[in-house]
Specification:
alpha+beta, 4-stranded antiparallel sheet, Triger factor/SurA peptide-binding fold, Chitinase A, domain 3
Length: 459
Amino acid sequence: MIYLLRTFSLLCLSGIAAISASAQGLRPPSSSSSSLSLGSVAARAVQAGPQQADYIVAVVNSEPITRSEMQQRVARAQVQLSQQGIALPSQEELARQVLERLIGEKAQLQMAGESGVRVEEDAIDQAEQNVARQNQIEVAELRRRVVADGVTLARFRSELRDQIALSRLREREVDARVKVSEQDIDQYLRDQKSNTDLSGLEFELAQILVEVPDKATAEQTRVLQARAQKALERARAGDDFSALIREYSDGMERTSGKSMGLRSADRYPALFLQATQGLDKGGVSALIRSPAGFHILKLLDKRGAGLPPSSVTQNHGRHILLRAGPQLTQAGAIARLAEAKKRILAGQTDFATQAKELSQDGSAKDGGDLGWAAPGQFVPEFEDVLMNLTPGQISDPVVSRFGVHLIQLVERRETPLSVREQRELVRNFVREKKLDEAYLAWIQDVRGKAYVEFREPPL
């Protein structure tokens, strides 16, 4: 069921539990059959034998939901959840969630139709192409697999149409109404900064460790302590801490001079947290004695887990882009770029030359150079590959919604974020949180207004 694994999120059943949970407690209107419930109807539908004739399990504002429709959705959900490694609920519970989801979708689609939401054939064609690209296959192969799964192309395109309609309805009814003010950002930052619960904090520490052997004599310990004290004095005097690490530390960090990284509080020893709890950013702890020796800690960063980072990893990449079309299939583009990579690695040419000769992107004249880019500037299928490359490494051909790419990471760096950039990150986070809350409330409202009648199976 390949097309179900890569389609729009509104039909992604891996999220069904979260959405149906928000609707738990909603009951059918009093005009519905009082002797039936969503759970009992769902259970009977999935327990029915395969030879039993199809029948209507529920009616949503006069539009039916059939047993076969529901069972097909249950089967899809089982495949998706299994492939994503998510534990499956009982069949009856999954059926209950699927039926609740179907009721919600029917009500939303009816609302979309009544409010004038329309989906053009061109939009469905584009959605079909996106599904094929995301699965790295041609549209013709996608259609073959859809039919092999027992789904007609007409039904497949109808489901794409429904998904686009639901997406547009959500954008109009929910997304467009969610606003994030400067006051919202300020309040979020205040809430995070006032969080004194260590479990909600992240720390970045750098350390100098002067090791003390297990059987060190008192005199040896005194000499090592004096060495550590000297390092502490220099650190507090403002000497470069990375240089002091390389000069004094006996720990693993000595060769790199780097910090221990940004970690949650539970990933640091309690001794370290106690020593740095009262420090401001950039502060240096007192000398700490542990069984390993003498430690000096510098607090490089401390923030609530929800606070924006002070810096961001930027990637300098370049690519070669080939677009599939009448003269070049996607498979042909992949083969051509694989050959280009082979020639580059063999030293027969270089990346920039190949980009100028082959690439169908505006960056071709610059040898495919994309400049420095922060996270989120590229589409996910491109960025995920770029982020996992090491400097100088070339990827295998990558399919995105724009075509087929050959990607090379030139270099990577950490860049400080300005206050404005940090606030924009917070704005995006707060907006996503508001969107989720507004969407769930909207789903409940649409579902609550729907007339739902549950039906008994035929005798």
